[in-house]
Write a structure and sequence with these properties.
- The chain has four helices and five strands, in the order H-H-E-E-E-H-E-E-H.
- The chain is an alpha+beta fold and 147 residues long.
- The chain folds into two domains: 39 residues; 106 residues, OB fold (Dihydrolipoamide Acetyltransferase, E2P), CATH 2.40.50.50.
- It has a five-stranded mixed barrel.
Length: 147
């Protein structure tokens, strides 16, 4: 719904041939989007309950529902220089715990969802630290590591 709304605004502005209004509107919309993405940013841990896709005006939205039944959109972001959201969505599994970086709010009347721009699997992080710990313990017991 929001893409359609913006398309209607820009089509009408382009038809008006008023370049100063077009420039002012464009700068306002771009800066508003930038501040929205930066000022609503939040880091949180979620547990993925379900994944799904849906079509919105010809665009596929890749969605996640967490254990609190909150919906998130995985999409690319210019402001966070994020371009691999589809790959992230396919690698995420149900019942997986993730540390996420999100921005945005849920606005039902506009069809807007919070966006996940970064996710990291908690078990992967724990496994990396456990491997390092086990490797150091083995080196210490073999006499390869001196303290």
């Amino acid at each position: 719904m929001s893409r359609t709304f913006f398309n209607i605004i820009f089509k009408n502005l382009l038809k008006s041939n008023n370049q100063s209004v077009l420039l002012t509107t464009s700068v306002t919309m771009i800066s508003s989007n930038f501040f929205y993405a930066i000022l609503t940013r939040e880091e949180k841990e979620i547990t993925v309950k379900k994944k799904y896709k849906f079509d919105r005006s010809g665009f596929t939205e890749f969605m996640i529902i967490d254990s609190n039944d909150k919906h998130y959109n995985l999409n690319n972001s210019l402001w966070y220089w994020k371009w691999d959201s589809i790959e992230d969505w396919y690698s995420i599994k149900e019942e997986q715990k993730l540390n996420t970086l999100t921005y945005g709010w849920r606005v039902p009347i506009l069809g807007i969802f919070p966006n996940i721009v970064s996710s990291q699997n908690n078990t992967t992080k724990v496994n990396v630290f456990m491997n390092i710990k086990n490797s150091l313990e083995q080196d210490l017991s073999d006499g390869k590591l001196l303290i």
